[in-house]
Amino acid sequence: MTAGSVLSVRHLSVDFKTDDGTVHAVDDVSFDLAPSETLGIVGESGSGKSVTSLAILGLLPTTATVTGTVIFDGENLIGRSDKQLQPIRGERIAMIFQDALTALNPVHRVGDQIAEAIAVHHHTSRNELRTRAVDLLDVVGIPHPIERADDYPHQFSGGMRQRAMIAMAIANEPDVLIADEPTTALDVTIQAQVLDVLERIQERTRTAIMLITHDLGIVAGIAGRVLVMYAGRQAELGTVEDIFYRPCHPYTQGLLASLPRLDRRATGDRLHRIKGQPPSLVFRPSGCAFHPRCPVSDRDGLCATTVPETRVVDGDHVSACHFATTLGLRQEHE
Amino acid sequence: MLRYLARRMLGSIPVLLVASFITFWLIRRAIDPLAKYRHIRDAEAIMAQQRKALGLNHPVIVQWWSWLTHFVRGDWGTSARTSDAVSGMIQHALWPSVQLLFWATIASVLVALMLGTYSAVKQYSAGDYFFTGLSYLGIAMPDFFFALLAIGALVTWPAVHFHLNEPILYSIGLHTEGESGLSLDYFRHLALPVLTLTFGSVASWSRFHRSAMLDVLNADYVRTARAKGVPRRQVIMRHAFRNALIPFTTVTALDTAFLISGVIVTEKIFSISGMGQAFLTALGAGDAPFLLAWFVITSVAVIAMNLLTDVAYVALDPRIRLS
Amino acid sequence: MNTPAMLSQRPIEDPDLAPGSGPVMRTNWQLFRRRFFRHKMALVSIAVLAVLMVACYGAPWLAPYKQGAQNLLNSDLGPSTKHWFGTDDLGRDQLSEVMYAGRISLTIGLAVAALSTIVGVTVGAVAAYFGGATDQSLSALTDLFLILPDLALLAVAVLIFSQSYTSIVVVLAALGWMYMARIVRAQVLSLKEKEFVEAARASGASTTRILIRHIIPNCVGTIMVNATLSIALAISTEATLSFLGFGVQPPQNSWGRMLSDAEAYANSSSRFYLVLFPGLMLLLTVLAVNFLGDALRDALDPQSRR
Q1: pLDDT tens track for A246-281
Q2: In chain A, which residues have their Cβ closer than 8 Å to the Cβ of B224?
Q3: Chain A partners (3+ C-beta pairs within 8 A)
Q4: Superfamily of domain A7-223, CATH level 4
Q5: Rounded to an integer, what distance in angstroms lies between the CA atom of residue B108 and that of residue B104?
Q6: Integer angstrom CA distances of residue B276 from A237, B96, C238, C247
Q7: Considering CB atoms only, which of A94, A103, A120 is closest to B230?
Q8: What are chain C's domains?
């Protein structure tokens, strides 16, 4: 475990039993989260990024088998019961979900739901709870917080709802905040506002944030380090500059190349896309999961037979590709 | 809320009118008001006279309208069987049935909610399978067979086997001679009829609630509650159950009319002189005036129950209340 | 977030993708068979129903005694090897009576289900397809009959006719078709908007043709399930009617009627078998039909949870 990290994930794997076979949703993922840093976890749908976050808090259904370790505060969180995890959930590690409309209980008032987050961990008077809830709504930038605290989730707009969720998550000033696609369901302008709220909160409380998204643009703006995932496995991990300027994994490179860019010359060509489709997580390609779509793979050689382990490219920048160093060297020469 | 209620009540009036017309028409066809005159001397003449007096020469809809106008003014006619005032008979018969329905509804709702919640929370456990099996049995069992089995098992067999002077539970009426009020005697009489009325509803409602709870337990907001650190019991009750109650109210509304059919069978078997028994007697005797009033009262009762559950539904779901 | 269910989707065939990465697609019929046969209770039910139908419809050849054959010397006997279900106060063998009565109970159930299905499907499909006044009147009608207690209405209606076998079937079906109509209406309404209907209409197919060849075949699953369940309901309702005295009249017999006769003996511990056996037959039949209906529903609609 890296000294000083608040959360340390090692060889995390999650399998689901289904009628069609075992789904390998997460396969051997390892990363650290330093205090007060923002780690962006990027990947397509099905890459396993959300499942990873749910695994940390033990929120996966019983059909899931979770192996590996997640060290928090000196203890491994994996395999613990609901009762054992209860003091940590919402208090030390909190989570924000993607769709605030379904993630908030429709029959309880927003203020009450925020108050509940506090009340289950601390003995507080009703008045105190109410004051804190209103305060939190104010902190996240909701106007007229006193009146709004008595409203129901369906009476909020999308952006406001998401802010209310954030308020609920930071109520106990957790050490870690996991944000699972917090802006995916929102308009671009609202997205910016919500991300802004997150940044302000982090400045205030020095919480570490794990931001899960498929949107590289968001990651570029707010993250310090980035973990790129593909088909349940980690592809690349490094600082934002490492990933964006010196990507050493063909998948990352493909992702970056498919971003519409204003600064490149318009060549009249179509947008670049990565050929093919993400693989089934039940019947994965042998060897490297990305090799059928990879422009640099040797189809029947190493890439098809051996799963590439994560190797160091430069300091803390790691990549799970057989040709990571070659790709790294190529960058230097460009 | 009040406006909503008022609107719904007004909306039920046309339904009531059509329903009463249909029952009027059916009863006219089923019961021959001139039956008692058919085989006497001078039948023809007397029948013609009676036909005029009873307004039978007019089209059915006119006859119905005439009956209706009397009815809403409080004139419910006299029984063709006993010549007593129909309104009095109905009043008399209502009370025992209301008691049965009251206890049965409370018992059904409470037991169904408990069983459904338990089965959902402990899905696939032995208890869940057991109750699911029981539900299947409950849904398939005809209520009169259940009642007879219950009598055999809980009244007859213990009395014979343990050589009792008095049965533990009674199978006739609601009170023993001379007793009244909420005594133990009352509940010993109530037990079997209420059980008969309840088991069918419990069987289907508990399965429905189980499935509603399962749906809700998989909802995003339940996951959020767990992520907040809300203890399991509170998650189940304050978050899941509270939301599963909403669809539950719709299911209870649908069954009111069926409950009334159940009351007819139950009162017959357990010799309770309520609306059910009264219906059977009236039908057997061809007592048209009574039957007409009977149908109106039961329809009103069903509509009232539906309105009540509507109100409950709106009260429980703020998304509907505040839109 | 992606649920594991979504994650296990078979990959879309993409020429860029490496071949051989997905499982074989199964046909609809095989899927149906596989899901249906997973229901052991349904298989047991089919067996039970088969035995019942053979026993009841084969009563003239299989019953140990003739129907209504009295033998006062053997009256009021409990179940024994000579009389498996015992005898009543006139010495009639109850096993035979149950078998003969079963014919009526089962036939009425099947006939009512068939009739109400045909009428219900037609009305429901037409109402949904044409919409407007037809649809509204159907909805109003169905809602109306939800207010009136069905048993009471049936009892009155049956009195209008001669209380013969046929009139009971007609009356029960007359109240039963509305449930099926509602369900079919909902199905047709959703199907109406689908593309293949528009395509058919664009190619000039007449309304009847569209209804018969395109829409109804897609409802078959739902129709089958509900028709099955309505058999159970019909058997139950006839039994209740007969129990109250408004159904089948002597000399015809049904399980409900047998229970009506036996009602007096519920209080007796020595003659309880007169209540037990006809009731048990009713219970078994309805239970079996329900299991069958449930299994059909699961097999035809994978979305429905247990």
Answers
A1: 888 989 988 888 877 777 666 666 677 787 888 888
A2: 95, 97, 103-105, 165
A3: B, C
A4: P-loop containing nucleotide triphosphate hydrolases (3.40.50.300)
A5: 6
A6: 76, 10, 18, 17
A7: A120
A8: 34-63+93-300 (1.10.3720.10)
